[in-house]
Amino acid sequence: ECDRVIHLNKLKRTHVRNAVRMGERGGLVIERHETCCRAKLSTVLVVVDRRTLKNVIEFRRATTSAVCRFCSNPLGDDGGVATFVASGVHGCCTNEECVDLAKNLCTKTLPCGHPCNGVRDEATCLPCLRGCSKDTLFMDSEDLCPICFTTSLAEEPCVLLDCRHVFHFRCIRRLLTMRWSGPRITFGYCRCPTCSRSLVDLKHPILAPLVEPVRILYEEVRKKALLRLSYDGLEGQAGATEAERAEFAIDKYAYYPCFKCKHASFGGLRACQDARGDDFNPADLVCPMCVEGPAMQECPRHGADFLEYKCRFCCSVAVFFCFGTTHFCNPCHDDHQRCVSAKKESLPHCPAGPRLTQLEGDECPLHVKHPPTGEEFALGCGICRNAQTF
Asked: Is 2 tagged catalytic?
């Protein structure tokens, strides 16, 4: 009576309270797993994610009739026989989503006698999620998928990663398909959501078609970032091992997918991209190999990755490449907001000094013929121009 009248909101004081039975074993069961903590009663399950503290409270209906293994609704008068004939999976109702899940679920029975909860046609079945594989798995059937955190692992076909963490196949597939957000190529999405282990070298045969394009892209970005790090003379700041240097370089530089050829193209420092945000037009991100006009060049020895450019806003050699589209010298980079917002007709003509300064005379400080100020122009390969310094 105290809880119903004194502590509840006025709108809820007339609600009926039902006592939760403690179950035949007569107690609350507390379980602590690597990914979550659980409190279980016979009709209530509370799951809390240990990392994010998200929680789900599930009230289970007490029933003696057969229920769907995916949605827990009653199977109906035929006990799911019609769906079994269509999908080969026992205990599935006629709901369209449940039938789709059943068609992708493994139909094998494990040596322990429990049905496999893996993906259909896998060469090696998923270990048992019902407590028979405690020595080899960190999770079981009542754990929620750490990606969606809405349904338990038992409610959908699952996959086991190399790190021994289990996820819904549909969730991990969506994670690998959506890739990164924003213009800059990142690989945070290709890590285990639980332990952050990289999935680039994942050997799972079902996920191989999704992981292989990611691995190819990662190797391309890794190779180019390491070359850029060496070109900038920053290897001494990046760590002793190649893996440490690669991680440092990928984090320091920004690479974008070229809108035309889809290859990774150098886009400057990551800090510039962070300052600009994610407001961008994908069509503007074009690599030097695909750009049209005077900016298009390629070194026969080193390709287009180490071209040096004229500053877009003056007659100086650019030292910054920002937003994946614009080259700046140091002074123009410091005053980039004014430079970028200036109208093209108001820009100084050659010879042009930094910070939109009009210089006197007719001779260009770069001693080259180039397009009008405000357009991109490549001066040539930086490695070849500075060959004596390498």
From this structure: no
